[in-house]
Amino acid sequence: MNHRKDKKGRALKDGEYQRPDGRYEFRWKDSYSGETRSVYSWRLTETDSAPAGKKKEMSLREMKKEIHDKIALGIDAVSAKSVTVNELFERHMELSYLIRDTTRSAYYGVWNSLARDSIGRKAVGEVKYSDVKRLYLKLLRERGLAVTSLGPLNSLLHSVFALAVRDGFILHNPVKGVLTELKKQADSKPKSDRALVLTREQEKAFMDTLMETERFARWRVMFTVLFGTGLRIGELCGLTWSDVDFRQGVLHVNRTLSYGKAGGERCRFIVHPPKTEAGNREIHMTAAVREALQAEYARQALSGFCPTRIDDVVGFIFWKSSGGLYQKGEPDHAIDCIRKVWNRQEENKAAEENREPVLIPHFSCHSIRHVFITRLVESGANVKAVQYIAGHKSVLMTLDVYAASTGEGRAEAISLLEAAE
Q1: I need a surface site. Which of 144, 145, 169, 387 has the fewest CB within 10 A?
Q2: H helices, E strands: number in the chain
Q3: Which domain holds residue 38?
């Protein structure tokens, strides 16, 4: 028979103790680790008052009931409070041994940028549906992300918390349904609010500012090529001079450059092939793209070519004066600086002329890709040709179904784009 009592003369149940300082302790054996665990409280029951100067927290018997309830459901309550989301992410990455190094690097990039310093620091058991939604809304508002851009982060978080459910840390996945709800809200908005494609006037304003502002000179060739080819930023940064055929007027796209971790090593630049076969393609250059690249080649022929070698690849077209290569976020930062210069000048000029300003909205390098593809479709190009030029695996990603594309048709698509300008 248990005759132990607390200092108030109340009988203590199995596993309950009162320490010399007055705090109550409940001990139990963790069925997951086999270790003895403890929780503490200054109050034994819910009706007890906390001692003077002590925070009123959950009573010991409330904690005890919660622990027993979770054990009955198969939940590891201690780990749920002690293991952080970042730690579980690392466990998830360790178990995902079949993914490619480039994919692993991309996962780390998404996590480090969007989750590590926010939700990643929380204990797994503390994260609720509302916490995930709050994080997504913050990213939409403060980072200017589109709802669709949350997809990679959502997939990672969903996988991490699915592991938490399977390991018995939590009962339900708090990520489930969050992005679906946000997408429904976005779909209820006018299309112009959901998909950003710069108007021709905004595109011209951006390029005019780029060409007329001397401090942006180093970005001129890069953005001329981006607007004229619709390349992904990794494809652009991975271009070398051997990929440029000035005689045929063609760019050969066959690799991507990324920056991140691969196989657990420190961050570095990585060259890898396109993720799908559709990514290997030839793009016919517009006159503007050809002229810009010819001028850049002539400049580098005099001053020197890129000295950096990545995985036996040399001759990168786009590089810094230091000899290093560009990371993904640097061109996006340049875009923001350029549009801010235009917007300040345009707001002042519009006020003087008593008219509405033509402002450039927040956009990214990937937005330029959408602009390019939209211009091709608007010009009447064969949709199958647009699919090829964009490097889409399926025509459904471009528009719908159209006639099969030929090499001549792809060249014609570029010609139509030039004619429409």
Answers
A1: 144
A2: 16, 8
A3: 16-72
